[in-house]
Amino acid sequence: MNRLETMMRRVGKALEEDQRAKLWKLPNDLRITSSGKAVWGEKGPADFFGHTCTGRAVLIECKDIKATSLSMGSRGLKPHQWIALAELTRSGGIGLVVWAREAAVAILDVDMIHALSRGRKSLSWKAIPPKWKHELSHSGIMDLLDKHQI
Question: Shortest CA distance to 70 belongs to which of 43, 93, 104?
Fold first, then answer.
């Protein structure tokens, strides 16, 4: 688990204490073969799932990437993650990407990523408006989640 996921676990506890939302970390799917060997199973839809206090479903994918852009593909936001976030959003849930870059963090929903990437296969950090970025801290993440109504 990386620094961002560790921080998101603490944020999840704070959201629960504030009665704003409940988040759980999705475990990696690990299976045991008939020969007793452990192998990775299906890929999960995101890093965290849960619900808001008003009943909206939530999926959050965490990306701790120092690069100046977040690719939509094998090195960044993977296709199965994008599909899961987009499907949840279309059905009325909240699908978010929490992108940590050095000492800053941005939290974006699917529609924002689509609009800001303008059809490209990556999203530039510079394209993200300042109001959706914050210092990488517990309070910074809480502030950004508040803007997303979580």
Answer: 104
**Cβ pair 114, 99 in contact under 8 A:** no
Amino acid 104: pLDDT: 97
Q: How far apart (Å, rounded) are the C-alpha atoms in residues 79 and 76?
A: 9
The encoded tokens of residue 68 equal 């100046």
Between 79-90 and 110-117, two packed helices, what is the crossing angle to 10 degrees? Answer: 120
- What order of strands is seen across the sheet that includes strand 57-64? 21-25, 48-52, 57-64, 94-101, 104-109, 133-135
φ/ψ (deg, to 5) at 23? -120, 145
**Would you say residue 117 has pLDDT above 70?**
yes
Q: Are strands 104-109 and 94-101 parallel, antiparallel or unpaired?
A: antiparallel
Q: Are strands 104-109 and 57-64 parallel, antiparallel or unpaired?
A: unpaired
The pTM for the full model equals 0.89
